[in-house]
Structure formats: C-alpha cells, structure tokens
Please model this.
Amino acid sequence: MKYYLSFDCGTQSTKSAIYDGDFNCICQHSYPNEIKYPNPGWAEMDADMYLNHVVNGIKYCVEKSGINPNDIRAICGDGIIMGVVGVDEDGNAITPYIPYLDSRASEEAEYVKTLDPIWIEESGNSVIECLQPPIISMWLIKNNEEFKNRGAKILNNGPYVLSRLAGLKADEAFIDHATLGGWIIGYEAEKKKWSERQMEMLGIPMKYLPKIVKPTDIVGKLTAEMADRCGLVEGIPIIAGAGDTMQSFVGCGVYDHGTASDVAGTAAMFGIMVDGIHKELSENSGLYFSIATVPDTYFYWGYIRTGGLSLQWFRDQVMNRKGEDEFYQMANEKAEKVPVGSNGTLFFPYLQGGQGFVSNASGCFLNMTSNTELGEMWRSILESIGYEYMTLVKKIREAGVEVKEAVITEGGSRSDVWNQIKADMLDIDVRTMKKKEGATMSNAVLAAYAIGDIEDMKAKLDEILVPDKEFKPVPEHTEFYGITYDYYMNILKEHMSLAFKSCYDLRNVKCKKSGECNKENQGDAK
Model:
C-alpha cells in the first residue's frame, strides 16, 4: 500500500491527514490555532505551535488509521501565503509568526507607496498593504530586537514546519515559487526569482531571503528526532509544497486559464486563472497577481481579510459557542428562511481593520431593530462577503476578463445558503466538489507526483475531482442585489468614513482611573 501525509497550516486550525494511493482521505485530525492580539491592530501566532500541531496530528492519524509507517511515501504541506517568522542560524523561530491579520506595518506600507513602483512590471502588482510579507519583514528587521541580534532568514509558516521536519538549517531554508506569489512584491514573477532591485528599495538584505524552489522539489528527509515524535520512520521524503490559496485552487480543479475559484476560508478569497501578467488588471484593478502551483500558471485574486473569521467571531464571541461546529449548520438553516437582503440589516466585515478608502474601518452591524434576530444577523454576514466579492468580480469584468462560473472550496463550501447567495450576487454559476478537503488533498497529489508515483498531476486531478452541487443565479435575486449593492457602497464610501475615523479615535481613549478619561487621547472623537 502507498500512503501520503499532508498538512495544512491555516489561520484558525492546523490539519493533518493521510491519503491512500487513490487519494481518499483515510484519517484527518485538526487542532485549533491560538491567535494573540497584543495591541490594537496586531496579531501574533507561535510558529512552533504549528510544528507541534502538525507533529501531533500526524501521530494521531498514524495511530488511528493503523497503517504501517513504512508505507508512508512522502510528506507535503501548505501554509499561509501572507505572514512571516524570523529564524536563527539553526532554523529555529526567534520571533512571533506575524500573519496577514496584523496591521503593525502601516507606516512601512505608506513609505513603500512613495517609491517608484517597479514591482508592477516585475511582480505584476501595484497594490501595497501592511499585510504583505515584504512589508511585515521591513517592520521585523527594524523593530524586533531578537531578530536584530540573531536573525538569519525570514520564512512563511508552511516552509518553516517542513524545514523543521527535515532538520534544515537557515542556509538550507526555502520558499516554493507558489508561496512566493503570496509575497506580492519583491520578486520577478515570470522568472520566479527574488528581485534585488526591489529588495534594495525596501531595505531587505538578500541574506535574509530563503532560496526559491519548485513546489515538487524534495527539500529533505524526515529526521530521526521528528520521526520518533510523529510515530514514523526516518528518511521519508519532504516535499516543498505550496501556499494554502494555491493548493485550494488545485484542490477544486481550478488550474486552467479562465477558471475561477472562491476559497471560502478564514480569509475569503476570489481568484481567476490567467496565462500571465495582464497590464490592466495589474495597474488598475486593485487585485493581486500571484504564481500558481502548476507550472506556468498564474492568477489574479482579491480577498476579505476576515471573511470566514467573521463567522467564527460571531459564533465564539457573540454567541459564546466556541468550538461548536454544529452552530454553523443551525445558523445557516435560520439564514435560509430570511429574505434576500436580510431585511435591510448590514454587516461590515472589517474586524481587523479595513483597507483603501476605509483603512480605519472596524466590524459593525447596521440597521437593526428590536425585531432583528439571529438568522438576519447571520445572513447579513454572509451577504457582506458577497458584497465585497461583487466589487472584485466587477473589476475583473471591467478589465475584459469573463467570469461565468466559480468553484467554491474549503469550509465555507459546505454552506448551501452561502453558495446560493454568491451565485445570486455575482450572477454566475457556482459549484462545489465532492472532495471538499481542498488543500490537504492537493498536497497528497503533489507529493505523489514529486516522487514519481503518478506521471501527470493534472490528469490525476481531473480523474478524482468530481462535481457535487451546482447553484445557479436567480435573476430576481441578482437584480435585487444589484440595487442593494449600490446602497451598501454608498453607505460605506459616503457615510461610514467619518464614523470609522471617530470610532478609531474612540478606541484610543484611555481612562486614567474610574470616572476620569484621558482627554489628551480623544483626538478628533468630537
């Protein structure tokens, strides 16, 4: 028998899984991840938390499945494309892992916006934001004392875990070319190499950057120490893997030019595959351009930073149902009974801040009454992601790129009501796949291809990816959402900017003691 180990280092959880030679998942286990918010707008995670979750998840799956560890052919994993950790010469993490939810590098982002944007031509991107790995890296190099003293390389979380499993030192550290696409700037996309010109402008020494490899490269072998911890045997090949978004695209069959995907995860992402840099989309759309997993494929995409996270926040913090996944089904059933438009209730999904013209934004509900109930609130959250997607798809279409259908993957694809909302709002056919594992399944296929167990990765994916449900837009709903979208954008652009600014100032008002506020910190709160 042949088996492949896969893991996905995501935002909300870390999954480990075992796939057989037919790429059926025979065992999967996940651990919830802890995100710390030490300051307003900051978010931090522990890189070694990811490592421990992967190791313990693998051990659980091996023991639970009862397979012979000698039958494990390879290990492959993915990680978040936007977020970095600093490591020392031995390859050990010496800084927090700073994910895309973090906004501490806002000043660095504003500075980069003043530079000559040579990344438009080289990287295919014009948008600069504080969540991009090079921007976070600029902050890390300037402000983290531990990295100043002992920093050797800057890594994404997926390559970090794979490097530790293989016992790689800093001088052996790597990043695959698909995860590289998540850096947005700092590299030459079509050459798949770091841009020394860009890095010099950003003030990032080349010595801190890992070597670039192919997703199918074997980067090392499982060490004896890690084998013992995982319940495996030493010497199993470690495959470079790719970024989570890229692998989610592969996992739903989106790898050909013109196909689109909605990765309904913690950060909701919508993307469309292209054959290279599209000048209009790169310069004027506000979308990102990235390198995909499959050779010579690329895609443009946009995101809502706290898309799926808004749903988890509502469950955990508002409803106090933390960890109860059955809550989602109950909430979806209630939302299905609510009319399109949620009876006017709106939600803005900016729980970790906004971007662009709403950079000071925060999450909020609007237009609620004493009759507003759970189903309306839940549906308004689902629709808020749809409104954001409407903006993304509008930009793609305005650039002359046709969008007729999309495949939805990851956890959000299990919500029929959300899938129908997206079909209605975007006026496209939406479908899901029977295999809903997304990135973890893609990793297993990638591992098999990397070691020669399959000859044609795309052919194998076409064979095992079978469509499940299809959702077609209801014309009356599409027309209705076209009207409410204009209201949504008008409220956001014309009326909420000042409110968000005042709310931002309000969050910074500090009380010296009970009953006495620090007037000096009120700013423009009046």
In short: Residues 517-526 have pLDDT under 50 and may be disordered. The first strand starts at residue 3 and ends at 9. Residues 475-507 form the longest helix (33 residues). The CA atoms of residues 69 and 292 lie 31 Å apart.
